[in-house]
Amino acid sequence: MKKLLIAASAVMLSMSVQAAQDPEAVYARACAACHNGQLPMAPQRGDKAAWEPRLAKGMDTLVLSVTNGLNAMPPRGLCMDCTAEDYQAVIKLMTE
């Protein structure tokens, strides 16, 4: 019984690590307005040179910046229902 509970807990934890929302949908709804070039200081989607120094800070730092806001980006980056995993998935999408 103990092994079953441990296995079930591991499965539940692994499932919670994934983004709950579709990254493309989140990007279109909350990120594209600024990251499609309308704000010159916001790195554009797919601009590897602009994203490189940001990625060097680590994903946790990027997610924290989105959550708290940074420069012109408001807290939560206009996605009030996003989780940290959603932010990670959208950041990954924008940096590819």
Topology record:
Blueprint: H1 2-16, H2 23-35, H3 48-55, H4 59-68, H5 84-95
Helix pairs in contact: 2-5, 4-5
Plain-language structure description:
There is one protein chain. By secondary structure, the protein is mostly helical. The protein has one domain: Orthogonal Bundle (Cytochrome Bc1 Complex, Chain D, domain 2). The longest helix has 15 residues. About 14% of the residues have low confidence.
Q: For the report, how would you describe the main beta sheet?
A: none
Q: Strand tally, please?
A: 0
Q: How large, in whole angstroms, is the Cα Rg?
A: 16 Å
CATH fold field value: Cytochrome Bc1 Complex, Chain D, domain 2
- The portion of residues assigned to helices is 55-70%
Low-confidence parts = 4-16
Shape: globular
CATH superfamily: Cytochrome c-like domain
Helices, by number, come to: 5
List keywords for this structure.
single chain, mainly alpha, Cytochrome Bc1 Complex, Chain D, domain 2, 96 residues, 5 helices
What does this entry show, briefly?
The protein has 96 residues and is mainly alpha-helical.
